[in-house]
Amino acid sequence: MADPREAILNRVVAVCAAVTGIQTAVRNRLDAAALRRPASIVHDGAEQLLDAPQGERRSRLQRMELSPSIKVVLRGDDGAEAGALMTLYRSRIVFAVLNDAELLGLVGSNGGIRYESATVALPDAEAREYSITLEIIFTYPFYLSDLGA
Amino acid sequence: MAASTLSIGTAPQQRGTLVFTGANDIGPQVVLTLTLVQFSPSGSINFIGDDYGILELTGEVLADEDGSFGTLVHPDDAADTPDERNYYLGTGVVTWTPEATTAVPTPTALDLGNCNAFEVTQEYENKEHWNRRGGTRFKDYNPVTGQAANVRIELDEWTAANLRIAMFAGTAGAIGTARATRRAPPARAA
User: What ranges do the domains of chain B cover?
Assistant: First the structure.
């Protein structure tokens, strides 16, 4: 089996791109090309050890937590409209990611997908751009042998 | 969807077959069948709290006439060691099939929903024999004289069917039945 980390991150971008209303989804970029809005920008984030079998000393098998951030950037005429739009896209993306059969298959029955947080950044002065960052945690089995596949 | 009224304690004999079917990705997917389990009251059921409610059930696993408490099926009898794919991280499905009765001769298996724990404990009774012919006594014989097994599960889906097992409950109509079978107190002498 291929390394699940890359497969999960690629799939998250694809799922975000397919969400109704999202104009573009990019990965590990500061912004979307041509400033298309609403945009979804996925940053790979951290991959951390969750647990490992007792006595395992070579990381042949362990469970990892992958925590990419999904930033949604959009335009709003005022704060109230932007707030409603950010809630809308938060709901659509969280629903899409947590129900995606391919992602569920990648994390497997010993892993999981967990919606962790949503944070709205302070808007820039005079700007009409707003952003909300979603954190979704993917827990999956890590096999050292997968890295050589 | 209709409400279900349970009569607590009117079905004290909760006996049946408990089956765990592994669905784990890490490790072998074993199937454990405990042929006859008799549940007994265990931990308290917390109706108010800041933690998710748990229905804890403990039971005695009863042996058949051959002394077997059940079976465990392993998917690969030729698994080599050492191999990290033998490490086990359990997850799976637990079903409960009540013992057949005259009223329900062929009961159906009930999926107990999400199960946080499924623990089996085996107990042995031994009769120790000590050799005391020297300065230091030493144990030289320890035959098994008795065996028992217990199971503990933790459910977190508060369905009426699960609560019926956890609270040893029958349907509400059973209240009258239970009272009717109680013996009347002896009449006082005048």
Answer: 6-77+86-177
- Kindly tell me the sign of the dihedral angle through the C-alpha atoms of B98, B103, B107, B111: negative
Model-level ipTM above the cut of 0.90:
no
Instruction: Compute the nearest-CA separation of B23 from chain A (Å).
Output: 7
Cα torsion A103, A105, A111, A113: sign:
positive
Compute the half-sphere exposure of residue A27: CA atoms within 13 Å on the CB side of its CA: 15
Q: What is the pTM of this model?
A: 0.87
CA dihedral B161, B163, B165, B167 (to 10 degrees): -150
Ramachandran angles phi, psi of B169, nearest 5°: -105, 145
Per-position pLDDT tens, chain B of length 190: 899 999 999 999 999 999 999 999 999 999 999 999 999 988 899 999 999 999 999 999 999 999 999 999 999 999 999 999 999 999 999 999 999 988 889 999 999 999 999 999 999 999 999 999 989 999 999 999 999 999 999 999 999 999 999 999 987 764 444 444 555 666 776 5
Please give the Cα distance from A48 to B148 (Å, whole number): 43
Residues of chain A in contact with residue B89, where contact means CB-CB under 8 angstroms, are: 63, 110
- The DSSP letter of residue B181 is H
Name chain B contacts of A56, Cβ cutoff 8 Å. Answer: 84, 87
CATH number of this structure's domain A4-52+62-147: 3.30.70.1700
b/e code A132-146 from CB counts within 10 Å (16+ = b): bbbebbbbbbbbeee
